[in-house]
Design goal:
The complex is a heterodimer of chains A (261) and B (266). Chain A is mainly α and 261 residues long. Chain A is 57% helix and 11% strand. Chain B has 266 residues and is of the alpha/beta class. Classes of the chains: A mainly alpha (261), B alpha/beta (266). At the A-B interface, helix 1, helix 5 and helix 10 of A face helix 3 and helix 4 of B.
């Protein structure tokens, strides 16, 4: 056992309710499969109260920070009616969700997003674009609170990132969200859509949303399987240099990923 | 050398921050400025900016894209030094992550990794690198150094400076059941370049105190003064409160409290 392997195991236990339950039960055998035998023994011997407390703390912080940042517009409008969706963090539904949370998983991100979105949709019901705003911010949240990659392994072939998604909205709420993030005093009324938006998770772990044109969607569809810039340009019948520029822009926001050949 | 007193840059308080130029001498940048931050050019021209962003987890080598980003931030801010946390927030493979400051295990193998990667980052950026230890709440019962010994060996072997967050040190001491001054005295204070000072607040999950975006209490200010008196290389003291809910009043009060207790008038 090294300090690295032990710490990897500790992070896994802190972010996984399933593994934490095994550690608390002293189930070295099951935990060993996930973190290694010596690591499992050390983690089973850790103070279970502090492990649980730190896990709850990290989980609450993880989702709180993203709700504040990614549901900023919905929160601001809800607060005008005396509600704050952030209050879900103090409720019993979130408390029980936190006990079973798998931090950074798509499932837990979805569950938390649904709690907040439900609260927002109820609060914004008087606004015709309220549900579009809740859906948009919920998508940003789910993408950023879900699984992520920390490394860019290769440079030869490119593929659509699993976190990249295109959504359609009946109202263009993007300018409203941007205005809230700037801290504008007067907010624009969202125009009617429909609009299509590409939501992607950048290499640094931040979510980005850009307008999805037909050409962009065609390119993403062509990247469902890894390919080189040369073959992609040929497939789309476009200029290779322009194709490369687009790929680099998409890689910068995390919509596509590089792979080794 | 004069000691600068500053705070973190809060874009939503940019106008008020500009009004406090001089009283606030430097700004620590936790995030890059937004493209639509109309105040940033003025902020940049009137304050010394300190790079305090997430550059990478130094138990691993900083990758090419992260290094490119760090170089762009250095070029943008022109900071006198670069700060990073002595933390470990994701597994080696990146499959589990906490996205919040969390200390490493204080073992020899991880120490060697941090030393090697910090040296490489410092060389790549061409600026002094200072590292900020994270409070120890959860300690595993395995052979390892204590936090102060790990930090001491890290700065000695890497050539990096120390960013001592007084609240962090207070919390480590609190959760280890030690007097805070005794703990701080064991840290390599001769390597301190910057102090962070803020408050602590009760946390519902930890059932005890934790880092808070609050004005430091007299006890924490006293501990900051204790450290500052023993830190001959100290260059800056930063009110370490960073929150989207930060108010101009708290910003002003935090910096004022630090200036008053440490005897550093504007």
């Amino acid at each position: 056992m090294t300090g690295r392997s032990l710490h990897d195991g500790l992070l896994r236990v802190l972010t996984s309710a399933r593994l934490r339950a095994r550690a608390a039960a002293g189930d070295v055998a099951t935990l060993s499969a996930a973190v290694g035998a010596a690591e499992a023994r050390a983690l089973c011997a850790a103070d279970p109260a502090r492990v649980r407390a730190m896990a709850r703390f990290l989980g609450r912080h993880f989702y709180r920070e993203r709700i504040v940042r990614l549901f900023a517009a919905g929160r601001r409008l809800a607060q005008e009616t005396g509600h704050d969706p952030l209050d879900v963090l103090d409720g019993s539904a979130f408390a029980s969700l936190l006990e079973g949370a798998e931090l950074g998983s798509a499932a837990t991100a979805q569950a938390v997003a649904m709690l907040v979105e439900g609260e927002l949709t109820d609060t914004l019901t008087a606004r015709p674009w309220g549900s579009a705003l809740a859906a948009y911010e919920s998508t940003l949240f789910r993408v950023e609170a879900g699984p992520r990659r920390w490394t860019a392994p290769g440079r030869d072939r490119v593929v659509r990132a699993s976190t990249a998604c295109v959504m359609e909205l009946g109202w263009d709420v993007t300018r409203l969200v941007a205005a809230v993030r700037r801290g504008d005093g007067v907010l624009p009324e969202p125009p009617t859509g429909p609009i299509r938006i590409l939501v992607a998770l950048g290499p640094e772990g931040r979510v980005t949303a850009v307008r999805a044109s037909e050409a962009l969607e065609r390119l993403l569809a062509a990247l469902e399987a890894p390919c080189t810039a040369t073959s992609l340009a040929r497939m789309l019948g476009s200029d290779e240099a322009a194709c490369r520029r687009t790929i680099h822009q998409l890689a910068a926001i995390g919509a596509v990923e590089w792979r080794d050949a | 050398m004069a000691v600068s007193v500053g705070a973190f840059y809060h874009p939503h308080l940019a106008r008020e921050t500009l009004d406090l130029a001089g009283f606030i001498a430097h700004l620590a940048m936790a995030d890059p400025p937004r493209a639509d931050d109309a105040f940033f050019p003025a902020i940049r021209s009137r304050f010394t900016l300190l790079l305090h962003d997430f550059l990478g987890q130094l138990s691993e080598p900083v990758g090419d894209s992260a290094l490119d980003r760090a170089r762009r931030l250095v070029a943008l801010y022109d900071p006198p030094w670069v700060a990073e946390h002595l933390q470990r927030i994701h597994t080696t493979s990146g499959d589990a992550f906490v996205d919040y400051v969390f200390p490493p295990a204080y073992t020899d193998d991880l120490l060697a990794d941090y030393v090697r990667n910090a040296r490489a980052l410092q060389a790549a950026l061409g600026r002094p690198l200072i590292l900020e230890p994270i409070p120890t709440y959860l300690r595993l019962d395995v052979p390892q150094l204590d936090e102060a010994a790990f930090v001491g060996r890290f700065v000695a072997e890497s050539g990096c400076g120390l960013l001592l967050d007084v609240s962090h040190a207070w919390l480590s001491a609190h959760y280890a059941g030690r007097p805070p001054r005794d703990f701080v005295a064991t840290l390599p204070l001769e390597r301190v370049v910057e102090l962070h000072v803020a408050g602590v607040e009760a946390d519902q999950d930890l059932d005890g105190p934790w880092i808070g975006a609050a004005v430091p209490t007299p006890e924490l200010l006293d501990l900051a003064a204790f450290a500052a008196e023993r830190a001959p290389g100290l260059r800056a003291v930063t009110f370490d409160a960073f929150s989207s809910a930060m108010t101009a009043e708290t910003l002003r009060a935090g910096v004022h409290a630090i200036r008053a207790r440490l005897g550093l008038p504007a």
